[in-house]
Amino acid sequence: MKVLVIGGGAREHALCRSLSLDPDVTALHCAPGNAGIAEVAEVHQVDALDGRAVSDLAASLGADLVVVGPEAPLVAGVADALRERGFAVFGPSARAAELEGSKAFAKDVMAAAGVPTARAYVCTTPEEIDAALDAFGAPYVVKDDGLAAGKGVVVTGDLAAAREHALACGRVVIEEFLDGPEVSLFAVTDGETVVPLQPAQDFKRALDGDEGPNTGGMGAYSPLPWADPKLVDEVLRTVLQPTVDELRRRGTPFSGLLYAGLAITSRGVRVIEFNARFGDPETQVVLARLKTPLAGLLHAAATGTLASLPPLRWSDGAAVTVVVASHNYPGTPRTGDVIEGLADAAELDDAYVLHAGTAHDAEGRVVSAGGRVLSVTATGPDLATARTRAYEAVSRVRLSGSHHRTDIAARAAEAS
Ligand code: AMP
Ligand code: GLY
After folding, report:
1. Cβ neighbour number for residue 363 with a 10 Å cutoff
2. Using a 6 Å cutoff on CB, does residue 145 contact ligand 1?
3. What is the pLDDT of residues 83-102, one digit of tens each?
4. What's this model's pTM, rounded to 2 decimal places?
């Protein structure tokens, strides 16, 4: 099978790594890719938001499967353009991707499908904003309605800050605060059959102890030893299947990766958000544990044949990933710094460095090219071992001004 992956972050590097290990994959391409992906796939330059350009590339490569990684091309209709040209595509249509693209749309789907989520108001005027903030009280949860790369959400006890963010958003969702730990659960779906993956936990805040601003995600681990073993079945029954059924009922079936961001609250599981693609960095740890070859799974979703796929096989072990971020991330990141020590890190067993924002400079050196630069991933028989290996690999990599959290999976490893 010839596979083309669209995107160029650590998620796409993880996807390409797994696809490169799948014996059914005869050729692997990625566009635009990054410096790390170039080691496992042939990379191509393309405007990932241009459906026609992506389709032309897929045609020139004779791709049997196109996997669209990030949300922006999905929301821009790149999967639609590819499907119109007859390609098997892993990734939802633009209309189905509105589940991620518009928080207000997601709330509407959840209400219709009876999916448990935070109560919310969609506001457009200062009067509506004040009324909603007043109705829920602190802590305030204020979300920009559109795509914001995980950074459009403000959770604060400070009414003035909540109000300021809401007014800056235009259309804004203000909702009830959900207590309890967060879980990311992904499901592969062809629009009808839903196959859940193993749950993971992401660390959204920039600094240790969940301090500092929200980011795209600073690390992740799987499995979750503290979670109820029935969690996946419950979420499949109460969240994932009803959502997929509702979108099919509306005539906009969701085919691809449905990502449920969940809060395990004192009153039960609630959806915080949906995403229409693999999460980053959770994908790095979930795929590290998946034993079923990836291309067959994604192809089955793309061709509507998931129902006949055998059950997924998983490693009993654990995986941890630690994100190394640029100076100043999640503010405007400094880029162009040389990354050293990658070869030292590559010598470690059961640890590997996935690239997020990296590029080659004119002299062929690997340099930082984005906010999240590397996603250093390790596996082990348990979380404590995987965590130790991941941090050992992080310590071998040098990037001037970079920062990373030191507490990824720490509590879960201690408790297990
Ligand atoms: P989102 O982009 O919707 O995932 O929100 C980003 C982060 O904000 C989430 O991962 C949570 O940590 C936090 N958050 C979002 N909604 C809520 C909520 N209703 N209650 C508490 N925290 C929330
Ligand atoms: N890890 C959060 C996200 O992918 O949105």
Report:
1. 7
2. no
3. 999 999 999 999 999 999 88
4. 0.94
